[in-house]
Amino acid sequence: MIKTNFDNYPKGKAFSDILGDFLGRGIFNVDGRCWRFQRKLASLELGSSFIRSHVLDIVLEEIETRLVPYFTVYADKNDTVLDLQDVFRRFSFDTICKFSFGFDPGSLKPCLPVSELEWAFDESSRLCAERALAHSPLVWKIKRLLNIGSEKKLKSSIRVVKRIADQVIKKRRETGSDSGSDLLSRFMSSISDDDYLRDIVISFLLAGRDTVASALTSFFFLLSQNPKVLNNIREESDRVIGPTREAVAGIGELKRLHYLHAALHESMRLYPPVQFDSKFAKHDDVLPDGTLVKRGSRVTYHPYAMGRMERIWGPDSLEFKPERWIRDGEFKQESAYKYPVYQGGVRVCLGKEMSLMEMESVALCLIRRFDVRVVNHDRLRFAPGLTATVSGGLHAMVRRRDLS
Questions:
Q1: 299: phi then psi, degrees, rounded to nearest 5
Q2: Whole-prediction pTM value?
């Protein structure tokens, strides 16, 4: 599906119909020539060392000026809980907006404002997910035609997202600011169609916000249940960075934190941000195990289920065990077809390294400076969505650590 017979398994019209109003012709909603163009364009930009360094600068600024001060306020309050998922969603929304649009929504400012863009973006994502879960697409298509109920709300929220994006693009065109470091600036010279440009950037906004927040939420849930793993991460960071230094690790130091890298991969094995993915067969096919796939059939693979299968990961598949990724003291990557969290083959995620860098920076900073104790320790329950979202949030108490 994602490598040897890739061309036979496009996203398909059924998928593009669901997200078409929201993502338009963005990379996550198209196939063929349009997808290849955006893929090549994104690959050239996201693969550069300059962009990775720029992303790290954005992440570190958000950590030091907003995330740490916010956690510090809660650490000084007795018996007060915060919603980790909400904090991580705000953090990642700020960082991806700065990177994609060169625009700061300020979601993690002390008063926790809900910007118009953030609200509309979340509402659009949620309502598109409801389309995907509908028993029949005919229901939501009729509602869209009549402009009633959830489809009326979706139309309104999408209009807000596109209006704000259009305003940013128009202002950038008028000022001739196409030499910046954000994706919008770097794409402007290659794309003259502003509607197309908007669709592309909104797609990156979707990919870079919700997946990072989802992964960090489940990671801290698992750390709260596995204090030995938490201590191992702290001991490793003390060896690499030093026990008292508060500055966030640089790119070189992050590469040496093999156990942290392993722990994040292990967390996403059990709780992948995107729990399943579907494609539609263009022609009849036979899978390697002999299964016949008829033309037009929907074929789904399920990273959430795969990460818990004994025949793939062994008898301890349900255990949170970062050591399974460590060989001879170093992190070793598994095959993308065994661990399809970032997909694989032609569609492997171009933002993988940047997302890992962002998550590791956030996790490392919070783990070294604070004790974070999750309050709701029961099994995670997920709400319907395009990415894995914990129903009701993930609540925790925070205390400062003594680094002296």
A1: -120, 125
A2: 0.92
Task: Tell me the per-residue pLDDT of 366-375, one tens digit each, with 9 for 90 and over.
Answer: 999 999 999 9
Q: List residues bridging with 373 in a β-sheet.
A: 397
| pLDDT band (50, 70, 90) for residue 87 | very high
Ligand-binding annotation for 365, yes or no, is no
The closest of 86, 87, 78, 46 to 365, measured between CA atoms, is 87
| DSSP code at position 272 | -
Q: Which amino acid is at 137?
A: P
- If DSSP codes are grouped into helix, strand and coil, which group holds residue 279? strand
What the chain holds in terms of domains, given with CATH numbers, is 6-400 (1.10.630.10)
Task: Return d(Cα 332, Cα 335) in angstroms, integer.
Answer: 10
Q: Of 110, 168, 121, 140, whose CA–CA distance to 22 is shortest?
A: 121
Count other Cβ atoms within 10 Å, centred on residue 214. Answer: 27
How far apart, in whole angstroms, are the C-alpha atoms of residue 172 and residue 168? 6
Name the least confident of 167-181, 182-196, 303-317, 383-397.
Answer: 167-181
Q: What is the DSSP string of 1-41?
A: --STTGGG----HHHHHHHHHHHTT-GGG--HHHHHHHHHH
Parallel, antiparallel or unpaired: strands 370-374 and 285-286: unpaired
Give me the helices (H) in 176-226, please.
183-188, 194-225
Measured distance between the N- and C-terminal CA atoms of the chain, rounded to whole angstroms: 53
CA–CA distance, 250 with 252 (Å, rounded to integer): 6
pLDDT at 207 over 80: yes
pLDDT (tens digit per residue) in 267-288: 999 999 999 888 999 999 999 8
Q: Which of 64-73, 260-269, 388-397 has the highest mean pLDDT?
A: 260-269
**Hey, which residues does 277 pair with through a beta bridge?**
301
pLDDT value of position 386: 81
Tokens encoding 6: 């890739």
Cα(269)–Cα(313) distance, rounded to whole angstroms?
A: 10
- Quote the pLDDT of residue 195: 93
> 140: which 2 tokens?
């939501």
Q: Name 231's Cβ contacts closer than 8 Å, sequence gap at least 6.
A: none
